[in-house]
């Protein structure tokens, strides 16, 4: 499947599909026993909000497509902060996140990032970010039922 994936910049027309993908995996980062996700988070991934990120020059928003349709998204804000990284469950462990991250990281470095990267990872995604070279940078936190672990990726001195 990995060879059949195309990565491109997101377009405003992708927003409803991106929103649907994120909502389909929201249970992976909900800390509540009822599986509910905070209203502020749901609002932040609504199609209109996603359109705003795509149109905002502070964000590099990329999508991964396969024959199945949209299978992954990544958004990096200000070349340093991973804002979104979500992959469709049926394509987990098939290299989609790695391909998205590799492209987004290259874009960020080409865009002048010398500060490294930061993410508020779901507990579920900590192993993925660890494989990318990130390290836990603080204690697990929670905001209205959304749990996250702050993580940081330092750049090698020759890149910074």
Description:
With 160 residues, the protein is an alpha+beta fold. The chain has one domain (2-113): Aminopeptidase. Helix content is 29%, strand content 29%. Strands 1, 2, 3, 4, 5, 6, 7 and 8 form an eight-stranded mixed β-sheet that branches. Helix 1 crosses helix 3. The mean pLDDT is 88.
Rounded average pLDDT: 88
**Record field, number of beta strands:** 8
- The outline comes out as globular
Distance between the termini: 34 Å
Beta percentage is 25-35%
CATH architecture: 3-Layer(aba) Sandwich
Assign the CATH class: Alpha Beta
The CATH homologous superfamily is called Gcn5-related N-acetyltransferase (GNAT)
What Rg do the Cα atoms give?
A: 15 Å
Unreliable sequence segments:
none
Order of helices and strands: EHHHEEEHEHEEE
Any chance you could write out the topology, listing elements then pairs?
Blueprint (H helix, E strand, L loop, with lengths): L5 E4 L5 H11 L13 H6 L2 H9 L3 E8 L2 E9 L3 E7 L8 H15 L6 E5 L4 H6 L3 E2 L4 E3 L2 E8 L7
Parallel strand pairs: 4-5
Antiparallel strand pairs: 1-2, 2-3, 3-4, 5-8, 6-8, 7-8
Helix pairs in contact: 1-3
